[in-house]
């Protein structure tokens, strides 16, 4: 759970900006976009295999 506490002299806009950065860092926005539509299990498996192949090729 992401929590943002206000700092001394910090405006609301700055707090929102920090909150958005934290959400992006945690991958929350990416997950929300991925879950906004239905993905077939075969498509999900294909995506994970492609990601694993990319990660494997980068390590070499």
What does this structure look like?
Helix content is 70%, strand content 0%. The protein has one domain. By secondary structure, it is mostly helical. It has three helices and no strands.
Shape: elongated
Proportion of helical residues: over 70%
Pairing-aware structural class of the strands and helices?
Answer: mainly alpha
Strand content: under 5%
What's the N-to-C terminus distance?
Answer: 35 Å
Largest sheet: none
Oligomer: single chain
Total number of domains: 1
Number of helices: 3
Number of strands: 0
Average the pLDDT over all residues and give the rounded result. Answer: 90
CA gyration radius, whole angstroms: 17 Å
Uncertain regions spanning at least 5 consecutive residues? none
Q: What pattern of helices and strands is seen along the backbone?
A: HHH
Write the layout of secondary structure elements.
Elements: H1 12-26, H2 28-35, H3 41-59
Q: Which keywords apply here?
A:
60 residues, mainly alpha, elongated
Quick overview of this protein structure:
The chain has 60 residues and is mainly alpha-helical.
